[in-house]
Amino acid sequence: MTAERSEAERAESDRRRIGQLVAFALAAVAVVVVWLVAVAGGGSGTPKPTGGSPDVYPPATVPPAGERSLTEAVARSGCTLRSFPSYGNGTTTKRLTYRTNPATSGPHPEAAADGIYDDPPSTGSLVGSLANGRIVIQFVPNAADRVRGQLKALVNEDPHHVVLAANQTRMPYVVAATAWRHSLGCHNVNAATFDALRDFRTTYRDRTS
User: Fold this and answer.
1) Are 6 and 13 in contact (CB under 8 A)?
2) Distance of CA 81 to CAs 39, 50, 56, 203, Å?
């Protein structure tokens, strides 16, 4: 009986040991699975992408810099570069009509602050920005989300003294950039458009003549 009992005890011990090994293996597998899910899904503490409101410009990648000559970039883009006389300066609170579209000079109210606008400043405030040497980039209100995102990315490359906003004057361009007395108007947007905008910014920023 003693031998039989010892054999039974050994068998029971073996079963317990196997059971413990199986439980340990299953726990290890569970830990690995949880880790893989966390990595794939970003983890419970990682914010998930959410859709923005219509006023938030979606992220996009602007084409990289190419041409460094404004004249060549404008020619490649098909945009129109123009210069105008000064149509006045000085501050005013009167309602104004400007002689170019988009406006490039004239009396104006207080200047708009630099930056990217979801709600565009008044045209007069943008002219005030031009008078202070800013570059103002504008797009038509119905511009594609991708174009808006690309313009935002372009401004964020070099935002010093730059304003980006939707145009409110029914300008005849999809995208335009203005400086005091100068404008760049683009009926279409292509990779070369962004080179033209970059070089316009470099050429005319901080100039008031």
Assistant:
1) no
2) 50, 39, 29, 12
- Token reading at 78: 């098909």
pLDDT value, residue 26: 55
Among candidate residues 165, 19, 150, the one with its CA nearest the CA of residue 103 = 165
Q: Please, what is the Cα angle at 188 between 74 and 116, to 5 degrees?
A: 85
Evaluate if residue 66 carries a pLDDT over 80.
no
Query: Cα separation of 23 and 18, whole Å?
Result: 9
173 CA to centre of own chain: 21
CB 138 within 8 A of CB 167: yes
Complete DSSP assignment for 145-185: HHHHHHHHHHHHHS-TTEEEEE-SS--SSSEEEEETTEEEE
